[in-house]
Amino acid sequence: MNNFTVEAIELTRLYGGRAAVSDVSFNLAKGQVLGFLGPNGAGKSTTMKMLTGNLAPSLGSVKICGIDMMENPKEAKKLIGYLPEMRPLYKEFTVDEYLTVAARLHNVERKQIKNAVEIAKERCGLGHMSKRLIENLSNGYQQRVGIAQAIIHNPMVVILDEPTVGLDPVQIRDIRALIKEIGQEHSVIVSTHILPEVEMVCDHVQIIDQGKLVFNGDIDVLKRQRMGNKLLVGFNKLPELADVAKIKGVAEVELADNNMMRIRIEEGAEPHEAIVKAAVKNGWGLYQIAPDQTSLEDVFIQLTYQDGVQEQAA
Amino acid sequence: MILSIARKELKSMFASPMGWIILALLMFAFGTYYLNGVNNYFEVMSGSIRPAERYGVTQFVGQNVYGLASFIMLFAVPLLSMRLISEERRNQTLPFLFSAPLSIIEIVVGKFVGLVTFLSILIVYIAIMLSTLNLWSEIDFGYILANSFGLFLLLASFSALGLYFSSLTSQPVVAAIFSFIALFVLMILDRFFAGDPSSTMAQLSFMKHFQSFAAGLIDTADIVYFLLFILTFLILTIRRLDADRLRG
Asked: How far is Cα B16 from Cα B65, in angstroms, rounded to an integer?
């Protein structure tokens, strides 16, 4: 009996012959935060709907802590907290009323409901908004109420679809801290467009494109794979590309932004010193030489806007 | 669980003006007919000499009020039931219910119970109103009970149908219109087939089955009709919501 909290097994969803999600499989253990990335229309929300039992998969299955969603939906759903893309808020209720309804529907014990509502409000920074009608709250506060209803019953798995949309920077920071805090004891799946957020909050990344997973692994693995063999070099007096390419160990040279150069190194070579020596000899005015860590954005674009390469991390 | 959802629906109905307005207007209408009935009673009854024409005050006033009730609810129930599911669809709050540990049966029955509870307020109101006449006269409580029970079943059937039509669309007004038309047709169906008393279509009419309750008679055949009607539409609603989940 493995102790994965979320298991997606060959999830597929067909809409009249077209596969919105195709053969998505992944596992999540306790204490992990998974970032779910993908361009618009890639199938993120559809996958999340299948994970939470809002949509039945055409093929494949979902298991939450070993409980199959199709066979035992009530038991599986007890362990999940879900915030969909469109916040499911009843605008005519006050914050307190709404969260009480949420707690009741999620099987929180009657005596614990008041306490659970207070804790959820505190965690999401809603303390002073208790008696306000939800329709009178600002966008950001409504989003916080949405997150509060997802965590009110302290579920094992929290699935958030674009949780920081509409929040101001201070609130975003608070929510990210909250996600990290939840992620320590439980499992969290966060879908987002904001790549720095993924780098900050998640320890696992999944990239989905046109319904298929194109990357599934640790963040570090992702970044490391794109790093390693490139140098970002800054010259005050930009030399000819051909001159730099002549240096032993340099495989390729290209111009980067800000008048810098990106030098790709050959396998196993270490021409750093040679480059510095050449720069000094020819008076190129070297002021920066550092490994070029491709940001997550470039990796994302690379993986989704070219033919996706299946990368599986160990 | 069912009660939690019923409670939520009740709260929702009282949170918007619609519930209060309908309640107020209906109470006003019933009160007016009740008053008319009581006022007219002596005028009408003193004119009738033959014993067969002499109705008790319960039946005289009750006929007025309960007759109005069964007709006016045709308009009121669609207005109340229209938002039960279609508004949730429009506001995208269905995922809230679907991702909670609730079966679709619990969701549908919970909404149904919530609506019927709201309508029961009116039934109790009418019953109390008529019972107050007991201070000056001997009221036929059996008549009131039979009528209340019949009205209860009638309103429950209306609610079930309204709930089903609400689940078909994401626009409450469309649901209301279709519910009203369907209820109207079912209500007067027996008039269409008046020429052929043994026709099966006529058996489906609401009026036919409500009439015995209105006369003070509780017939199990009529009870079964209403229960089957409610069951049918609740099951259809459950299937419709489930289809949403399967087909997306």
From this structure: 27
Task: Establish if A54 belongs to a structural domain.
Answer: yes
Residue-wise pLDDT for B41-89, tens only, equals 877 777 766 766 677 788 888 888 888 888 899 999 999 999 899 999 9
pLDDT in tens, A249-291: 777 888 877 778 888 777 667 778 888 888 888 888 888 888 7
Residues A114-120: contacts with CB under 8 Å, at least 24 apart: A116/A152, A116/A153, A116/A154, A117/A152, A120/A148, A120/A149, A120/A151, A120/A152
Q: Smallest CA–CA separation between A21 and chain B, in Å?
A: 13
A143 contacts chain B (CB < 8 A): no
State ipTM. Answer: 0.86
Cβ distance of B12 and A49 shorter than 8 Å: no
CATH number for the domain including A248?
3.30.70.100
Interface contact flag, A74 B8, Cβ < 8 Å = no
Q: Chain B contact for A72, CB < 8 A? A: no
CB < 8 Å to B101, chain A: 73-75, 77-78, 105-107
The whole-angstrom distance between A104's CA and the closest CA on chain B is 7
Q: Are residues A42 and A190 in the same domain?
A: yes
Closest to A82 (Cβ–Cβ): which among B12, B99, B248?
B99
Q: Write the CB contacts of B242 (distance below 8 Å, at least 6 apart in sequence).
A: B104
Which of B5, B93, B248 comes nearest A88 by C-beta? B93
Decide which of A217, A251, A276 is a domain's last residue. A217
Q: Distance (Å, rounded) from C-alpha B187 to C-alpha B157? A: 11
Name the pTM for this structure.
0.84
Q: Which domain holds residue A282?
A: 228-291
Which DSSP symbol is given to A111? G
Q: How far is CA B147 from the centre of its chain?
A: 12
CA distance B106 to B101: 10
Is A228 in a helix, a strand, or coil? coil
Nearest CA-CA distance, residue A159 and chain B, Å:
11
